[in-house]
Amino acid sequence: MRFSNRIRFQKRFFDRFSSSYHLINFLSFGLATLTRRRSLTTLKIEEGETICDLMCGDGSNIGMIRKKFNKSRIFGVDISEGMIRRARFRFGEDNVTFLTENALSSSISSSSCDAVSCTFGLKTLSFEERKILFSEVYRILKPSGAFVFTELSRPKFGLIYLLWNFYFGFLLPLLGRFFLLPFVGKKYLSHSIDSFENITKDESSFRSVFSQVDLFSWYGGIVTGACGRK
Ligand SMILES: C[S@@+](CC[C@H](N)C(=O)[O-])C[C@H]1O[C@@H](n2cnc3c(N)ncnc32)[C@H](O)[C@@H]1O
């Protein structure tokens, strides 16, 4: 399988970071977990449906879905073997199929999923790669299947922006160095959020693919995303 340089970098980076990735949940003071839960709610999942979590990391979304819907079939796709290994270790494989694959060209069958989720993955992709990802989600969704993409974003103004700057530009890198977390210690996270900005950059890409798209902004713009239907 051939990957672009950027995707190869992501794979190596997240492999290295996989065993400590869960610490980010603590350093986000619960915001990451809250955001995942809120994102999954937008999908209105029903018991027995087939769900795919793209760029699933160490499986937090999968854990949440499985806890509520134990008869659903779940796919977890991630490019990093380390992350998939952690996800398997945390949640086992009952009703879950883990695929160590590129989310931009997975082996999941066309029109096979009722819902697709992807949290905190968009900022790791370029604008052009994100367009490919949206088409890929369209391909794997059943007719009128639901999707949600949620990402950390840069708030535009005011006090929230100052707090965001303090947290991502100063506090998190400091804590990251202390806990030896490369993801935040070298400001990787704040730089990738900075270049992603927010979901509005992708609005026309979403609208050119999906029939229904709703953009959302949570916590004063610290998290933005898009949900909708095929
Ligand atoms: C910031 S983590 C988010 C993980 C998870 N979704 C969460 O909520 O914590 C981004 C993940 O995307 C994965 N990733 C990056 N590029 C990918 C690609 N092209 N295909 C599949 N996974 C990819 C990385 O390995 C990493 O696990």
Keywords:
alpha/beta; Rossmann fold; seven-stranded mixed beta sheet; 46% helix; 21% strand; binds S-adenosylmethionine; transferase; methyltransferase; SAM-dependent_MTases_sf
Description:
With 230 residues, the protein is of the alpha/beta class. It has one domain (1-229): Rossmann fold (3-Layer(aba) Sandwich). The chain contains 10 helices and 7 strands. The chain has a 7-stranded mixed sheet with strand order 3-2-1-4-5-7-6, with helices on both faces. Strand 1, helix 4 and strand 2 (73-78) form a beta-alpha-beta unit. Helix 3 (31-42) crosses helix 4. The longest helix is centred in the C-terminal third of the chain and has 21 residues, at 158-178. The protein starts with a helix and ends with a strand. The mean pLDDT is 92. S-adenosylmethionine (SAM) binds at residues 7, 10, 14, 36, 55-57, 60-61, 77-80, 83, 102-104, 119-121, 124. S-adenosylmethionine (SAM) is lined by residues 7, 10, 14, 36, 55-57, 60-61, 77-80, 83, 102-104, 119-121, 124.
